[in-house]
Design brief:
Blueprint (H helix, E strand, L loop, with lengths): L1 H8 L7 H15 L20 H14 L2 H22 L2 H17 L7 H16 L8 H14 L4 H20 L5 H18 L5
Length: 205
């Protein structure tokens, strides 16, 4: 179902940005990452490609698989991520929350034809699911992995991640003041914010 909803979204309105991402990905593979705006009428403008990894990915998919590659890639990514999450957690309640959050964003996000935002939503959903597993400290390392991926496929969404984690920390802190939470959960929340921030710094810029 997770992959099915994702593939349906791939049939949505084609956004003109996809062509720009395609061309930028081609240029990065040929000339490397740059901090200049190569496609502006004005020369020498500085610009940061916060979606450089996505640009490369979408160029390779389109170049080798054509338009159908958009649908295949989005469906496969969502299936793999959803499967790995469910296999590891095996928690129907948390998995349902993940599905609702993802599908809500998927269908209410306009002009989302394989935009980097759709991929970001997947990893943000996984990051949120990690919040429900405070008993396993090893999962803190996943915040690092997810934040690195998000920072390089859609850097702007990293702020959303930090905001969500900050809200969780605030909520747990209120519960702690009401003697309905313990310090371990607060420490987990705090470390998740720090690790996510550090992961966001791991990018070419």
């Amino acid at each position: 179902m997770f992959s099915f909803f994702t593939s349906l979204k791939s049939f949505g309105n084609v956004d003109n940005d996809i062509l720009w991402h395609f061309k930028l990905g081609e240029n990065i593979l040929q000339n490397g990452i740059t901090n200049l705006d190569l496609f502006s009428w004005q020369e020498g403008l500085h610009w940061i490609s916060q979606e450089w990894l996505y640009d490369i990915y979408i160029y390779l998919v389109s170049n080798y698989l054509g338009n159908i590659g958009f649908i295949i890639s989005m469906t496969l990514v969502s299936f793999i991520v959803g499967y790995l999450y469910f296999k590891e957690n095996k928690n129907y309640q948390n998995f349902l929350i993940l599905m609702i959050f993802y599908c809500f964003n998927l269908f209410f996000y306009k002009n989302g034809f394989n935009r980097p935002s759709l991929y970001s939503i997947i990893f943000i959903s996984l990051m949120i699911s990690n919040v429900f597993n405070k008993n396993n400290k090893k999962k803190l390392l996943k915040f690092l992995l997810y934040s690195i991926i998000i920072a390089n496929i859609h850097g702007g969404c990293l702020i959303t991640c930090l905001l969500i984690l900050g809200i969780v920390f605030l909520f747990d802190f209120i519960l702690f003041l009401l003697n309905k939470n313990d310090k371990k959960n607060l420490l987990y929340d705090f470390l998740s914010i720090i690790i996510t921030f550090i992961g966001g710094l791991i990018n070419p810029y």
